[in-house]
Specification:
The protein is built from nine helices and two strands. By secondary structure, the chain is mainly alpha-helical.
Length: about 190
């Protein structure tokens, strides 16, 4: 009897996708604000993206953000190191943010409040808000990529624990309709 393979990466359910999508979109203004204030350049942003992606293991995000990191001037050896979870080649002043990014991903998006406070102490509220917004956005991308991969793996006999083909398809189909979810959510809050 053949042993059934298990898809190991974290994926979304429809409900968890909508929750993280709403959280990420609620925070996108913080990322824009930090970028406009000159607190986060593209290279720093790409290092955050790679640190989170390394933990979550999304092959699509690894590819896209490796290319974006190179375009932002990050040397290839540093990109490789980040994709291996090695932060030793990153700029010293970015290390607290990168460690927090890894921790955020490892904690499945539920960091201890003390850790978030520490991030704010190190960088200030505006920059810390931008960092956390970037982390939430790449986490959303990672999990969507992994959910798509889980669906593909299912056709090869590999399944994700606690998921089903219906949940995976429903999650992917929610993506183009998610802005309407946000709009409806905002309208209900106003009442």
């Amino acid at each position: 009897m053949r042993e059934k393979k298990v898809f190991q990466k974290r994926i979304f359910s429809p409900a968890s996708f909508l929750k993280l999508f709403a959280e990420a979109m609620d925070r996108v203004g913080e990322l824009r604000s930090a970028r406009r204030a000159g607190l986060m350049d593209q290279a720093f942003l790409e290092r955050i993206m790679l640190a989170v992606t390394q933990v979550n293991g999304c092959r699509y995000c690894s590819y896209a953000h490796s290319k974006a990191a190179a375009a932002a001037g990050i040397p290839a050896d540093q990109v490789r190191a980040l994709l291996e979870g090695n932060l030793s080649t990153a700029p010293e002043d970015e290390l607290p943010a990168l460690f927090y990014a890894q921790y955020f991903a490892e904690s499945k998006g539920a960091p201890e409040p003390e850790m978030t406070c520490r991030l704010q102490e190190v960088y200030g509220a505006q920059k810390a808000g931008g960092i956390e917004a970037a982390i939430r956005m790449i986490t959303m991308g990672n999990m969507l990529g992994n959910t798509f991969d889980a669906l593909l793996a299912r056709f090869k006999g590999e399944s994700a624990p606690g998921s089903s083909i219906g949940k995976e398809i429903a999650t992917i189909l929610l993506v183009p309709f998610s802005p309407f979810y946000l709009l409806g959510r905002k309208l209900l809050v106003r009442r």
